[in-house]
Amino acid sequence: MSADVWLVVGLGNPGPSYAGNRHNAGFMVLDLLAGRAGGRFKAHRSRADVLEGRLAGVRAVLAKPRTYMNESGGPVKGLRDFYKVPVERLIVVHDELDIPFGALRLKRGGGDNGHNGLRSITKSLGDKEYLRVRFGVGRPPGRMDAAAYVLKDFSAAERKVLDLEVDRAADAVESLLTGGLEAAQNAYHAG
Length: 191
What we know:
Blueprint: E1 6-10, H1 25-37, E2 42-44, E3 48-55, E4 58-65, H2 73-83, E5 90-96, E6 104-108, H3 116-125, E7 131-136, H4 146-150, H5 156-179, H6 181-188
Parallel strand pairs: 1-4, 1-5, 5-7
Antiparallel strand pairs: 2-3, 3-4, 6-7
Helix pairs in contact: 1-5, 2-3, 5-6
């Protein structure tokens, strides 16, 4: 692969018991993108499942680390090094507590905001200037611990529109690939 390829990583925890969790929003988006790319994920030596193909006409490697969220950095760095993808062409899709459910925010760089997956990636890469597609999951109700909240499944009310929100996040990833950050922000920050 060359410098024109993109690496799109969805964050989540492996295994069926986590599949519907808020923390697995990134995996949900990547599963939809894999369907759009017309392929299936295959195990990669970097401890991630990957799919090499085209997304919205652009060469991309889609990836889901097989590690737990707080160890996502190792697989992401391994993939970045293997495919020789510059950090400017890395997109990480993840859940975000500080954004209400149903809203997306796209940005380049910034802190981890307490997100263990982002913290691990930034530490492993030694760079925080990758693109992020932040999938809003909202704050926990009352005094519920944030860690417990993200490891719970989306609520019944949220599940009614979850497919639409995942679809919108997948569209935002494609928009980043084809039109760049500013255009994608203009299109997807309204919600």
